[in-house]
């Protein structure tokens, strides 16, 4: 009679070792996230959730947009990032610089950033906390989650409510006309890149003389 456990598939010791290593790495990664040494602001510390149509910028693009935002906001300036968390994270890496920043975001995982996080749903563009006063930001950087006129139009209401004047919009090249119509912004030469290649060509749009041309 054959042993009963012959039918049970055995993992080879090699596979088992690889699996253990994988779990160990995962634990270490999780551990790193909670230990002091981990930079909670680095891009990728919160992973993309494609169901929320999230695509992080490449490190280079996020740095470039953050730099532009700081220059545009000026000394002691206020910057709002609307659905653009990778720019927010880059701005926070420049700790101690003379500006303040808020993140308006639907994904509640970003609430780890405390008081600077504001829950935001573009379907309710003006459903904002009372302490977010109208026209209280020197620049608003926005990246609407969907390439639709409806999404852009609603996000535009939020942007216009928040900004004193300056707008930096990142969205698909196909949205050029709608961006001009709803926000009066023009396409820049600078081409934003994402950490994963997107099918749609992405562009930046501004309504002021920026350093992105």
From TrEMBL:
InterPro entries in the record: DNA_methylase_N6_adenine_CS, Efm5/EEF1AKMT1, Mlase_EEF1AKMT1/ZCCHC4
Entry superkingdom: Eukaryota
Organism annotation: Cisticola juncidis
Classification via PANTHER family: EEF1A LYSINE METHYLTRANSFERASE 1
GO CC aspect terms: cytoplasm
Protein name (record): EFMT1 methyltransferase
Substrates-to-products reaction catalysed: L-lysyl-[protein] + 3 S-adenosyl-L-methionine = N(6),N(6),N(6)-trimethyl-L-lysyl-[protein] + 3 S-adenosyl-L-homocysteine + 3 H(+)
Keyword annotations from UniProtKB, A to Z: Cytoplasm, Methyltransferase, Transferase
Pfam families: N6-adenineMlase
Single GO MF descriptor: protein-lysine N-methyltransferase activity
Gene Ontology biological process terms in this record: methylation
Record carries keyword NAD: no
UniProt subcellular location: Cytoplasm
């Amino acid at each position: 009679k054959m042993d009963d456990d012959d039918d049970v598939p055995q993992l080879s010791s090699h596979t088992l070792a690889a699996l253990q290593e994988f779990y160990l790495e995962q634990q270490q990664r999780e551990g790193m996230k909670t230990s002091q040494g981990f930079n909670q602001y680095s891009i990728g510390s919160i992973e993309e959730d494609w169901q929320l149509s999230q695509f992080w910028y490449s490190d280079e693009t996020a740095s470039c947009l953050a730099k532009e935002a700081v220059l545009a906001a000026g000394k002691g300036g206020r910057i709002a990032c609307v659905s653009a968390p990778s720019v927010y994270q880059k701005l926070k890496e420049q700790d101690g610089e003379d500006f303040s920043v808020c993140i308006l975001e639907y994904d509640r995982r970003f609430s780890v950033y405390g008081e600077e996080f504001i829950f935001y749903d573009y379907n309710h563009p003006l459903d904002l906390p009372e302490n977010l006063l109208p026209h209280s930001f020197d620049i608003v950087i926005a990246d609407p989650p969907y390439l639709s006129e409806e999404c852009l139009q609603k996000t535009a209401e939020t942007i216009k409510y928040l900004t004193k004047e300056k707008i930096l919009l990142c969205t698909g090249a196909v949205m050029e006309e709608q961006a001009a119509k709803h926000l009066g912004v023009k396409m820049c030469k600078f081409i934003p890149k994402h950490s994963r290649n997107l099918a749609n060509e992405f562009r930046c749009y501004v309504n002021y003389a920026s350093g992105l041309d």
